[in-house]
Every structure is written in C-alpha cells, then in structure tokens.
C-alpha cells in the first residue's frame, strides 16, 4: 500500500476552482503505466555444416622409382619438410658428384686463363668460353641436386599424416598416392543459408557449432568468409566459419549443427502482466488522453516476463502494467508512478495529487 498523499493547494488559489479537478482525480482509477518500447524479434537460424582442415593435401612423389624407406606412421604429427618416403637415388647422387667435378674443372681452367700474364697467350674468346663453361657447370649441378631432392617425398606443411598403403620395396609413379596430410589446428565449417538471410551474417560474427558426434560439446566459431554469390539452383549462399581446434579434439569431415540469432521484425514489447485474456483473445489496456482504451493484440513471443505483441502501438505509448482488472473502456486513470514523481519534485501550484494506491 502506498501512503496517502495530502491535498496540496496553491497559495492564493480558490478552493472552488480546484474542486472539479479534485473530483476528477477521485474518480480516476489508480494504475501503473509503462511506456512501450519496440524490440526486434530474435529468430534462431539452424544449418548443417561440414568441417575441413585449414590446410589439407594429398601427397604424391615427384618422380617414379623404388621406395627404399617409409619414415612415418599413420596419425603422426610431422614438421614441414620432413622426409616421409625415400626413393632409390643412387644414380641421382652419382649425377650430383659428376656435376660437382665438372664445375670444379671449369673453375680451375678459368682461373688458369686469368693468371696468364703473357699478352696474346690466351685470347679473349677463350676466357669468355671458360666463363660460359663455369656457368653451364653450375646449372648442371643445380639440376642434378634438384633431381636428387625429387627422390625424397616431403611434407608440404606441418600437420598430421593419414594412412598409407606404401611399403619399402614398392614401385611408385607420379600418380601413386603416398598419404594425406591435414593441418587441423583450425577447422573450417562450411554451410549454406537461404538467400533471404544474405546480409544478416557477416565476417566476424560468432556462431554456435555443435558436433553431432558429441551432444555435450559446446563450440564457438567465427565467420571468416561469406559467399559473394547466390546459388541460382538452390537459392542459397555459402558461409565459412573457423573453429579453434588447438586441443585437437575435432576432426575434418565432422558434421556440425550451426545455430545463430538474427534480428527479425520490430514489435511492441510489454510486460506479461499487462496481457488480459477475453472471449475473443488477448488484449491490453492502452492509456490515451488519461483514459483506458482496450486494444486487441496478437502474441508473437514470450521471454522472461516480457511479451512481444502485434498491436497498434508506437514507441513511447503508455500501456497499463498493473491495475488491468480495475478498468473498463474509457475509464479515467491516474498513473501513480507519475504522481509519486510529482510529489518527490514538489507539486506545482494548483495541482492535485492522488490519494491512495493500488489495492
């Protein structure tokens, strides 16, 4: 109960002039009103996505040959450049040694020509030819080293290697798959959304992604790319989100349930206590010109004591939050919240405050 408030009169005013206002105040029903605010309905969007490693590759040898060693086991983590398999390389090593000798001979010949100090003993063309021979020998050595290096099958980046069917003694070609490698510290989840949602999700948005394989896992992902085109056949676009998988719990190929909220249409938000149910459905009481006005509503959604409704209400309109059972259409009402504010500020000259409170 709110304590009664004494009748306040203006100094020098007429009691007779204030009596009609006092009678109006006494007839008014005390209520608590609240202003309406417009709130966007939060719609949950769900999709199914598939994970892929940030980097993935199928590894093939650069050349054909006999496998002499396999230097990994399935599931092993390897560093970039690690030799995964070695092919026989005897001929290539001999070719490198031969190229090194040829380069050394060419360099020695050029040095001898350059040391000769007798005019005309060595022509300029001979010196030029010797220089050319040195450069050619360097190229031959580089080619030989490259061919030797091609006999080693290396990891293109750091990651986890998969299964292999290759054993030492197997003969392979450039089309023989040695293994696969995944860098799965970060996983990408690709999923499709209907074109109606284009523009409602952007890079940097945070999503909830739950792997179907584990109902208890709660994972967040950050959108990295939003497709720039709409698939004309499916009327959809693709979104890619990144998951931090540094703990190596998730795997490429997993399916995920992707969910996020998007802002829907804006609706008036009112207290749940303001909704009254009648024979023709729900309604509430709006306050217009100090009187109650019945207004039918359609309930959109409920959340934590608040309700979004479809009704002829604008931002800031007053609706009755408490006292809905005491009014009828056209009943004069007094918002006791505003009355209390007036009392706390001091009642202006000639004003009359309400006495009593909600019962």
Summary, kept brief:
With about 350 residues, the protein is of the alpha+beta class. The protein has 4 helices and 20 strands. Strands 1, 14, 15, 16, 19 and 20 form a 6-stranded mixed β-sheet that branches. Strands 2-9-12-11-10-13 form a 6-stranded antiparallel beta barrel.
Question: Could you explain how this protein is built, in words?
Answer:
The protein is 21% helix and 40% strand. The chain is an alpha+beta fold and 359 residues long. It has 3 domains: 15-41 and 266-345, conserved putative lor/sdh protein from methanococcus maripaludis s2 fold, CATH 2.40.420.20; 46-53 and 186-265, Beta Barrel (Elongation Factor Tu (Ef-tu), domain 3), CATH 2.40.30; 54-172, RNA polymerase II/Efflux pump adaptor protein, barrel-sandwich hybrid domain (OB fold (Dihydrolipoamide Acetyltransferase, E2P), Beta Barrel), CATH 2.40.50.100. The strands form 3 sheets. Strands 1, 14, 15, 16, 19 and 20 form a 6-stranded mixed beta sheet that branches. Strands 2-9-12-11-10-13 form a 6-stranded antiparallel barrel. A hairpin with a 2-residue loop joins strand 17 and strand 18 (306-310). The termini are close together. The relative contact order is 0.23.
In the CATH hierarchy, the third-tier topology of the largest domain is known as OB fold (Dihydrolipoamide Acetyltransferase, E2P)
Shape: elongated
Number of domains: 3
Q: CATH first level of the largest domain: which class?
A: Mainly Beta
- How far apart lie the N and C ends? 7 Å
> Radius of gyration in whole Å, from Cα?
42 Å
Order of helices and strands: HEEEEEHHEEEEEEEEEEEEEEEH
Task: Give the biggest beta sheet.
Answer: 6 strands, mixed
Average pLDDT: 85
Beta-strand fraction estimate = 35-45%
> Which class best fits the helix and strand makeup?
alpha+beta
Helix percent reads: 10-25%
- Quaternary organization: single chain
What is the CATH superfamily classification of the largest domain?
RNA polymerase II/Efflux pump adaptor protein, barrel-sandwich hybrid domain
Counted beta strands: 20
* CATH architecture grouping of the largest domain: Beta Barrel
Residue windows where pLDDT falls under 50 for at least 5 positions: 1-14, 342-359
Helices, by number, come to 4
